[in-house]
Amino acid sequence: MARRRSTRPRPQIQASRDAAGVIRRRSPRLHPQTQVSEEGAGVTPRRSPRLHPHIQANVKGAGVIGRRRRRRRGTSPAATASLPDDDGMLWEIFLRLPPQPSSLPRASAVCKQWRRIVGDPKFHRQFYAHHRKPPLLGVFLRGGKEEGIVFNPILDPPDRIPPRRLSLELPSNRDDHDLLNCHHILSNHDDHDLLSCRHGLVLVKECVSGEVIVCDPITGKQRRVAVPPVFKWDHLWGVVLCAAGDQGHVHGSCHSSPFKVVLLSLFRQDRQSLACVYSSEAGEWGDLILGEGPYYIQNFTAYATLVGNVLYWSFNGNCILEFDLGRQNLAATAGPPITPDFYYGDSQIIHAEDGSVGFAILAHSRFRMWQRNVNCQGVATWVPWKTIEMCNIPGLSLQTWEQMTWMGYDEDNDVIFLYVGPNVYSVQLKSMESKIIYETNWISEIHPFTSFYTTGTSIDGGSNPAEMLHGTSDACLV
User: Fold this and answer.
1) Structurally, how many domains does the chain consist of?
2) Can you tell which superkingdom this protein's organism belongs to (predicted)?
3) Cβ 288 vs Cβ 278: under 8 Å
4) Contact, 339 vs 384, CB < 8 A?
């Protein structure tokens, strides 16, 4: 007699009512995730909706369709069209990268797609417009007799630019006044004086040739301009600035923009001040502009401050010389009233909080600031703004405050530079944060250099973006 297994102790094996054979399947009590298809002859395994609620079985069909797949297939065309493509999303992300020199080269080193985006000239223009103010890369100053005019970087790695990248150089052929590539570092250091630094351009006076040289340290291009003979060479001040009038133009990337050079002479026998403007677009000097000059000059600030469309110099404590670029007018005006202990202090025109003209003077261990208000009749009055005890500035060592010297002012970032031997400090006037930027025993006027530095991001630039700050640019100064 054949033994037949009982179905009671083994409920996981049951006979199919409709089929002749026996089909083994797991018990729904022990394995609830496996159920029999109601309409199919076979068994279709599927995951339990209790354990996997994101997957449900199709009741009528033998197959299983996941909800994720159905949702992906069911996305409406309108929803897809509202999402930007990959390039568009990356473009918006890259626009918000910091304006520091390492940001775009690092992004361009990731892949060809990223490099194509950040190397697009249109992207560069939008990048500049988004940030508005270029970063402070470093300072130009007159070094020792063996150094000449040097660039001193102030950013920390990886944004720190090697000094050789922005070294001012002269062409070997001094008779060529056209656009020239730079090949030789300044060799005769006593023949050159640093006059101005603004909008990514540097103005140098060459004593031997009687010319001023407009240099673009980023591109290595320069242009020579002969100085009118009426100017007294020993007492000559100058300013260079971008002359681009395009709507939305952002200074700091003015490599191919027109420029202006303003020359100023004060020590004249007729006690008149003299100014003249050179335009690169016209390729010539404008009319000579005469103004009433001071009877004597002491502590004249060599570097001017641009507020709006007016250049300002300070001298004799609280005296101001201003040149209106639009009206072509040169005049001397009075600054705020100061006490006798500030007569021989270092003074400077600065930017006030609301964009108006400010006046700052440093004497002993105090720093005083005024703001000029102009009423509807055009009458200007000076209002006290701030008085700061230098000992209250964090990080500023004042053990030898007698040696404190004002060395420069960055109008783009509202930063002053102070020498407290043997260190040079940068002090942000709004936050009053200070930082040691370098150490030196040579006191010289500092000319801040602010510019966007995006070299090494172009596919056709011939540089390796992975090297970060070692790219070169093919832009040209005109």
Assistant:
1) 1
2) Eukaryota
3) no
4) no
The answer as to whether 58 is a domain residue is no
Query: Does 456 map to a domain?
Result: yes
Report cis status (omega within 30 of 0) of the bond before 9.
no
**HEC-encoded secondary structure of the chain:** CCCCCCCCCCCCEEECCCCCCEEECCCCCCCCCCCCCCCCCCCCCCCCCCCCCCCCCCCCCCCCCCHHHHHHHCCCHHHHHHCCCHHHHHHHHHHCCCCCCCHHHHHHCCCHHHHHHHCCHHHHHHHHHHHCCCCEEEEEEECCCCCCEEEEECCCCCCCCCHHHHCCEECCCCCCCCCEECCEECCCHHHEEEEEEECCEEEEEECCCCEEEEEECCCCEEEEEECCCCCCHHHEEEEEEECCCCCCCCCCCCCCCCEEEEEEECCCCCCEEEEEEEECCCCEECCCEEEECCCCCCCCCCCCEEECCEEEEEECCCEEEEEECCCCEEEEEECCCCCHHHCCCEEEEEECCCCCEEEEEEECCEEEEEEEEECCCCCEEEEEEEEEEHHHCCCCCCCCHHHCEEEEEECCCCEEEEEECCEEEEEECCCCCEEEEEECCCCCCEEEEECCCCCCCCCCCCCCHHHCCCCCCCCCCC
For residue 243, the model assigns a pLDDT of 86
Please tell me the distance from the alpha carbon of residue 55 to that of residue 247, in angstroms, as a whole number: 57
Q: What is the pLDDT of residue 190?
A: 58
d(CA 350, CA 93): 35
Amino acid at 396: L
Nearest to 217 by CA among 203, 206, 237, 207: 203
Give the pair of three-digit tokens for residue 222: 């320069």
CB atoms within 10 A of CB 271: 12
Q: 428 forms bridges with which residues in the sheet? A: 415
Q: What is the 3-state secondary structure (H, E, C) of 191-226?
A: HEEEEEEECCEEEEEECCCCEEEEEECCCCEEEEEE
**Consecutive 10-residue runs of the chain (478 residues): their mean pLDDT?**
51 45 50 48 51 48 46 49 66 92 91 90 89 91 75 92 81 42 42 88 87 90 91 84 73 79 80 89 93 66 87 84 92 84 77 89 84 89 88 72 78 90 88 88 86 64 43 37
Q: Within a domain: residue 130?
A: yes
Q: Is residue 217 part of a domain?
A: no
If 0-12 CB within 10 Å is exposed, 13-18 middle and 19+ buried, where does residue 242 land?
A: buried
In terms of residue numbers, what domain contains 98?
A: 83-135+452-468
Residue 111 carries which side chain, given as an amino acid letter? C
CA dihedral 46, 51, 54, 59 (to 10 degrees): 40
Is residue 457 a contact partner of residue 236, using CB atoms and an 8 Å limit? no
Which bin fits 308, alpha (ψ -120 to 50), beta or left (φ > 0)? left
